Every structure is written in C-alpha cells, then in structure tokens.
Amino acid sequence: MAQYSRVSGNVGLITLQNPPVNALSAAVRQGIVDTVKRALGDPEVKSVVICGQNGVFCGGADIREFGTHMTGPPLVPMIHAIEMADKPVVAAIEGVALGGGLELALGCHYRIAHTKAKVGLPEVTLGLLPAAGGTQRLPRLTGLPAAIALITTGRQITTAEALKLSIVDQVTDYSAVDTAVKFAKSVAERSLDGRRVSERPCPCPPDVDALFEAAMQKVRQSARGAIAPVACVQALQAAATMPYALGMQREKELMATLFTSGQARALQYSFFAQRAVGRWSLPSGARWDGSKPRPIRKTAVIGLGTMGRGITVSLAQAGLSVIAVEAQEKPLKEAQQAISGMLQRGAKRRGGAPPLDLITYSANLQAVADVDLVIEAVFEDVALKKQLFQHLSAICKPEAFLCTNTSALDIDLLASQSRHPELVVGMHFFAPAHVMKLLEVVHGSRSSPEAVATAMNLGKQMGKVGVAVGNCHGFVGNRMLKPYLEQGLFLLEEGATPEMVDGALEEFGFAMGLFRMSDLSGIDVGWRVRKGEGLVQPGASVRVRQGRRYSPLGDLLYEQGRFGQKTGRGWYRYDNRHEAKPDPWLNNFLEDYRARHGLAARRIECQEVLERCLYTLINEGFRILEEGIAAGPEDIDVIYVLGYGWPKHRGGPMYYASMVGLIKVLERLEHYLRAHPDVPSLQPCSLLRRLVASGSPPIHKWRKIIKKTQSHL
Ligand SMILES: CC/C=C\C/C=C/C(=O)SCCNC(=O)CCNC(=O)[C@H](O)C(C)(C)COP(=O)(O)OP(=O)(O)OC[C@H]1O[C@@H](n2cnc3c(N)ncnc32)[C@H](O)[C@@H]1OP(=O)(O)O
Predict the structure, then answer these.
(1) Percent of the chain whose predicted confidence (pLDDT) is above 90
(2) How far apart are CA 562 and CA 524, in angstroms?
(3) Which of 90, 375, 473, 701 can bridge 110 by disulfide, Cβ–Cβ 3.0-4.6 Å?
(4) Does ligand 1 lie within 6 Å of residue 61's CB atom?
C-alpha cells in the first residue's frame, strides 16, 4: 500500500506502507502506480516526495512473492513512469533503500538520505540481479568500477559513501522526509534535464575490456559455482556497451534465467532460514517469544588464546565492557597487543574510534566478580573447564550467566560444577570469532529459557546469527562433520587421494575440501578429539575400534609429526604457508598402508565421493532432528552455511537433501551400507525413512513430522 497526501501546499507525499521494511509487494506497487498518477495529475502539486513509513524507505522487492504467481504492476515500467514524470520526484531515504527500493530511488530525479541510512543492491545474495534497472542506472551514476563492486557483492553502504559515489545527492542529520519536502519545493520549477539517470551516458574507462575481464575472473573465483555474480557482470557489460533500452532488455533476459534457478530458490530459503532461527524453541516448550533476555552490561572473557581474543573484540565492538582475563602476565600482554591491533584495524574498516577503553585486562580471576556474564574460552580440556566453573561459581555474583565456548564438551557436566546450573549455557563461536557470523547457543538440560534468551540476544548484539542447539557431543556442526570426515578417510583407504576427494567437494562448492580443511585446522586437533573419545591407540593401525570400522590414517600422520599447514606437511605439502600441493610421500604412504592391510585400490568417481561424504553428513542431520538437538532443518542449514563453508547457493545440507530427493538419499545410503555394513553412519536414520514413507514432503513441512517422530520416541 502507499498513502498519498499533499504537504507544504504543493508537494505530493507518497508514503510506502508495508511493515516491517516496506517491501514492494503487489499492493505496494499498485499503490505507487496509483498515487504517482494522482500526484502527476493534480495541478496543485508541483513536485513529489516518495518515502517509507516508520523510518524505513524500502527493503526491496517482496522476497516472499518470488516463489508465487506474481501479480500487480511490474517494477520496471513503474520506475520508468516515475523517471519520465514532468514534475520533480525526490526520494527521501531513511533506514534502508535496498534492492528494488534503491532502484525505485534511482528512478527518482533526486535522492536525499539520512546519515544513518544504508543503501545497496543485495540481489546477488538472493541469487538474482537488480533487474528493475539497477544494473543500467547505477553505473551511469557511479562509474563502472564502483557499480561492479557493489552489484557483484551486494554490499550495503553508508550514505556518506553513497554521497561520494553520487548515488545520493544530499545527506542530512535531520528528518530526510522534511528535508526532501523542502527540497522538492525548491526545485518545483526547475528543469529535469540531466536528472533522469537512464538518459545519461554510462562513463566507460579506456580499459573497459580489461576491467570486465578482471571482474569476471574475480567473480568466477569467489563465486564457486554461483551463477548470479556472473550474470551481474554480464548485465553491467551491457550497460557499458549498449544503449539504455537494449541494456534493459539484456538485464531482463539475464534475470529470467536467474529468477527460476535452483540457486535463487536456495539463497532465498537461506535468507528466511537465517531469520527463522531467531524464533527458537526448546524441547521443554520454552520459546523465544515467551523468554525475556536479561540486559547485559558488563562481560568477562576468560582465556585469551585465538578464540578468547576474537570474542573479546566482538564484545567490545558491540559496545559492551569486557574484563579480559589471562592467568599469566606474558600471554596477557601479548593478547592485549593483539586485541588492540584487531580493534584498530576493525575501526579503520568500519570508521569511528576503536573501543579500546571498553576492555580491562587482568591476570586475576577475582576481577570478574561483578560482571553480568562470563564467556570462558580456555583450552578445550574438560578437567580444566570443570575446575574453572567451580571457581567462577564461587567468585561471580549469583545471578551471573556462565557461558562456555566449547566446540564439543558436555554442557551439563560443566553446569553441574556451578551453584546455578540454570545460568550455564554453551556459546560456541567459530574462528576467527570476531569475523564468523555463526554462534551455536547450546542449552543444557538445566539451562533456563532466560539464559538461552540472554545468550541469543547477546549474540545478536555482537552481530552473530545465533542458533539454539541441544547438548550432545559436537552439538550440531561438529557432530555432523564426524561421519563426513570419516568417509573421507575410508575413501583414501579404498583408493582415492586427498586431492581427488577435495576436488570433488570444491567442485560442489565448498570453499575447502575436507583434507585441506583438516590441514588448516590441524591434524593434531582432530587427533586430540579422537583421543578424548578413546579411539586413539598409538602405534596401532587396527581398522576396527569400538566395534566399528575405523581408519587410523589421521593418527598415523599425527605420529609422523604431520600436523598440517602449521608443520608444512599434512595431507598435502606446503612449501609456502598456504598453498597445498600434492605430496608424493603421502601417496607412497597410502600405497604402503593399503598393501599392509590387503586393501585393493579401486577407481573412485566424484559422485561416490559426494554421495558418501554428503549423505552421511545429512543422515547425521536427520538423527539430530530426530533427537531434538536442532529444532528444525533451517537451524542445521544456517549452521552449515555460516560456519562450515557449505556453498550458500545450495541452501544447506538439509535443503540440499530435499532438492536431491529424500528417496534418493535413502537409497544411496542403503546402497553404500550394503557395501560397508561395518559403518553405522551409513545406516539410514528412522526420521529419514519416515519422511520418505510420508511421501517426501517439502522441507517446510518437516517440523510437523519430526514432532510426531519425537512423540513416538
Ligand atoms: C521481480 C524482481 C525485479 C527486480 C529486482 C529486485 C529485487 C529485489 O529487490 S530482491 C530484495 C532485495 N532486498 C534485500 O535483499 C533486503 C533484504 N532484507 C534485509 O537485508 C534486512 O531484512 C533489512 C536490512 C531490510 C532489515 O534488517 P533487520 O532490521 O535486521 O530485520 P530482519 O532482517 O530481521 O527483517 C525483518 C523482517 O522483514 C522481512 N524482510 C526483510 N526484507 C524483506 C523483503 N525484501 N521482502 C520480504 N520480507 C522481507 C524479514 O524476512 C523479516 O521477517 P521474518 O522475521 O518474518 O522473516
């Protein structure tokens, strides 16, 4: 909907009304068409202002309409009619002008924005391109290099930056609407020559071919199979080489291929999934809307290794005061220096001053006595953490929340060390903690809804996407990783090489295959985890442990001192720090190993690599759903996309399974189980069977069936 009024005598004011972000639904588009017509036809009206209600200009096209039969007036002619109007039209930008919202503003003759507003064309993040003229108008204003950067990344920028790039004409600290109305009055009689962006030439640098070649190479490298960034470059190429009308035609054709693509659907699913996880629920029935978070003012971080430093930075950047504790003076000094550097670099990037004053450093645990919430990030050692929880419970005020940054340990066990187990939750950050957006908030059996709500809210303040998960070894993310990694090792035993397995996974879209990832995180780290699980038997290469198939390959590499990148050798060789090269030593080692165990190497196809690695990971996801460790498939998908490098344009593992077809996943698991009956992770989970038996319903219907499954348990 759009409301029309006449203000200040002769300014027609059009207000978009579609809470919460005034998305351009069919009704809003119809409202704009009608009100623009009315304003242009009213002889009393000399100029027009378009704004959005509740301090938000417009969040773009209504994404919820994309999967439906779209009705209502289309955006392109609507915006064209505004641009061709013979009365000046001014966009008053408050809050955000994103996607179709910015494209609407670009069709106006002037743009006035509030200093705190953000603008951008994020369509690429939804698998689309700005197809309401964005790819044709933006470069005409900003020049090609800036337009390429903005459209291929979807980056949202401040209005200060937008002013420099000529995207907006004026920035104000006052009400953008009032300023725009005044401005509209002042330009009422002014000629519109030069104000219609589509009529301007697209400025082309002399080396335009090289510019596009470089842009294409960059997106192909970083997009890892995503088609939208490539289409964005192609549309911009059209802006540079064709007249506006033909460029618009090209934009439309490119959009048509993207609009119905599986990638766009997956990315749009992911958009809503990232918002859905905020509406968490616990097996007890407690929910986000019935649980109030407690306000947190003072925090503490214990242990200033890599994780503790990242968490401290993230808390300070969120404006919270932090007591940063490290027991030894020398590491404390080192951490202080490192954290200051991180904050300074962050401030340079974001603008503003680094929040150094918010952090107090201490070597004394007593310093945390009056904080509201502690996050401990000491070494992943259960005895150490247990002891720390006993100390914290004695030192902290009784109402303080005690959070543990653990990637796998038992939250209930740690909570049992505290006098207030209801105030204990896991906050599993991902490295680097000041960069990665994912946060697993782990509720133990005694964690109160208030504690979960507080940790989720704190995560949001820190700019994270929190996902509430249940307590089990490895929680959601790391637990699902286990069968995936295990399959990688089994494939090596059967004849694959690390580069072949990684190649298949990277071709699928992972940023890094599993062996390169293992080299990066450290083969010693995985070894320590397996040791904790009682799986490591130094010197032994027995292939059955705890009654099931086990590959000791990782342990054998560990015993050789091959820890991965940090030692220059792992599954690969690293002559410089980051470049993984196939290592002939490793191939000989694998051949010896196979010979020793009487294993015949066979040719393994990429499809088998993908099916075994991904379907076992997905199968574990179904177990997690069945057990109520994750409340819904969206939770798992968000964790995998934001924390584990799952290709965004494939939605997440559970979404991927729904696209591949649950029946196919089930059949292939059964097929591989027949070949490897000693691998329990290939045993299809009963929830998967149940979903297939109920006709493989679409993913949004799974929760209902999961609930029924749980009630049978
Ligand atoms: C036919 C196409 C022709 C032309 C091309 C044009 C294409 C487009 O315009 S595509 C849309 C481009 N816009 C975006 O990508 C913006 C997406 N939204 C956001 O980035 C953020 O929501 C926000 C910055 C606008 C607001 O952020 P925040 O304040 O943190 O709130 P939330 O993200 O939680 O959002 C609140 C609420 O609004 C829903 N929502 C947001 N944007 C849209 C939208 N464009 N369409 C539909 N719904 C939208 C969001 O899902 C939240 O609701 P739920 O919690 O119920 O999911």
Answers:
(1) 92
(2) 8
(3) 90
(4) yes
